[in-house]
């Protein structure tokens, strides 16, 4: 978690604001990944 989000689990779990920021970044990364995959050519 620290490498991905710049904070440890303890800090993440203590702060509601930190949790919201991390979850927002995770959602953005997920949407970006979905967009990349949808642009790949279909095989088969």
Whole-number average pLDDT?
91
- Relative helix content: over 70%
Q: Low-confidence spans: pLDDT under 50, at least 5 residues? A: none
Helix count from the secondary structure assignment: 3
Give the overall silhouette: elongated
Task: Return Rg in Å.
Answer: 15 Å
Number of domains: 1
The major pleated sheet works out as: none
Structural class: mainly alpha
User: What percentage of the residues does DSSP assign to strands (E)?
Assistant: under 5%
Count of beta strands: 0
Termini separation: 37 Å
Order of helices and strands: HHH
InterPro entries: YuzK
Biased composition (Basic and acidic residues): 22-31
Region (Disordered): 22-44
Question: Can you put this structure into words, describing what you see?
Answer:
- The structure is a single chain.
- The protein is mostly helical and 44 residues long.
- It contains three helices and no strands.
- It has one domain (2-38).
- The protein has helices at residues 2-5, 9-14, 16-38.
- The model has no long low-confidence stretch (mean pLDDT 91).
In short:
Helix content is 75%, strand content 0%. The protein is mainly α.
């Amino acid at each position: 978690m620290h490498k991905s989000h710049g904070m440890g689990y303890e800090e993440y779990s203590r702060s509601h604001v930190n949790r919201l920021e991390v979850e927002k970044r995770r959602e953005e990364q997920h949407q970006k990944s979905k967009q990349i995959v949808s642009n790949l050519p279909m095989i088969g």
